[in-house]
Write a structure and sequence with these properties.
Layout (H helix, E strand, L loop, with lengths): L1 E19 L5 E20 L5 E4 L11 H13 L6 E6 L10 H17 L5 H9 L5 H6 L2 E5 L4 E4 L7 E5 L7 H8 L10 H10 L2 H6 L2 E2 L7 H16 L4 E4 L6 E5 L2 H10 L1
Parallel strand pairs: 1-8, 3-4
Antiparallel strand pairs: 1-2, 2-4, 2-5, 5-6, 7-10, 9-10
Helix pairs in contact: 1-2
The protein binds cytidine-5'-monophosphate.
Cytidine-5'-monophosphate (C5P) binds next to β2 and α5.
């Protein structure tokens, strides 16, 4: 009794952040897009004890890993007996990268557990379980293209980004999400990403227009050194023919959108 799921990465086509709420989270408005880069998550039922085997080192205490938390949340909420669950995780999405890798792995565990233990559970119920694991996890359960609001859990489906090639470049440093959110508090963020223009471009299926209104407020609160690195990657992507480029999530991965696969391959090689 085993189920394998792909845990897809995401990029934020736009990401705007508003006020800090009483619960410590910030209001966000973001257009999120699932992309074709994935980890592979295999969940096996009834193995006697819960375990996690991962292709890269995981958290010091395995129980702190979001996949193990997903397991606990699923069985606590459904009041079912697990009989022991083994999770095997093959990582391809870089961690601490702004690509939602950890969130997506947890979402894949939930999806696999539903298949194995509760096939009649609705998508809505699974998304509400996902919310308990992190702000991006409901989107990772749903996938596709969505407007995400609230702390990220309020999702509205949007038409997908037109088919294109995407180059990702992750600088050698990590940016911890809570610190980046804290940097936004009280900062002068200047003009905000235009979410409405992005939604309109997607509705028209206009890749060039979508690429022209990529935007992420986290790019405005980078240190000089971080900002320099992000700018130079964006410039390189644009020089090689990207229609647009931006940082994803709380960074530091930068993505570029290309309407020509050859140009994308050349950009990748140059980077
Ligand atoms: O929801 P998640 O656990 O992924 O969030 C990690 C941290 O990022 C939170 O503890 C909070 O500091 C910050 N965050 C936020 N506002 C959001 C999402 C995350 O302040 N909408």
């Amino acid at each position: 009794m085993r189920c394998t799921e792909r845990a897809y990465a995401k990029i934020n086509l736009t990401l705007d952040v508003g006020a800090k709420r009483a619960d410590g989270y910030h209001e966000i408005t973001s257009v999120m897009q699932r992309i074709s880069l994935w980890d592979t998550v295999t969940v096996e039922r009834g193995t006697g004890c819960d375990s996690l085997l991962c292709s890269v080192p995981v958290t010091e205490d395995v129980n702190d890993n979001l996949c193990m938390k997903a397991l606990r949340v699923f069985f606590a909420e459904t009041a079912m007996e697990s009989g022991g669950v083994s999770i095997t995780l093959e990582k391809h999405i870089p961690t601490q990268a702004g690509l939602g890798g950890g969130s997506s792995d947890a979402a894949a565990v939930l999806l696999a557990l539903r298949t194995l233990y509760a096939p009649r559970m609705t998508d809505m119920r699974l998304e509400r379980l996902a919310e308990k694991l992190g702000s991006d996890v409901p989107f990772c359960v749903r996938g596709g293209t969505c407007l995400a609001e609230g702390r990220g859990e309020l999702l509205t489906d949007l038409p997908p980004l037109p088919d294109c090639a995407i180059v990702l470049c992750k600088p050698d440093f990590g940016l911890p999400t809570p610190e980046l959110f804290a940097r936004l508090d009280g900062a002068d963020l200047g003009p905000r990403p235009d979410t409405a223009a992005m939604a309109a471009a997607l509705a028209r299926g206009d890749l060039a227009a979508a690429a022209a209104c990529l935007g992420n407020v986290f790019e405005r609160v980078l240190t000089e050194e971080e900002g320099e690195e992000i700018r130079s990657i964006k410039e390189a992507l644009l020089r090689h023919g990207a229609l647009g480029a931006a940082m994803s999530g709380s960074g530091p991965t930068v993505f570029g959108l290309f309407d020509d696969r050859q140009k994308a391959v050349r950009a990748k090689e140059a980077l």
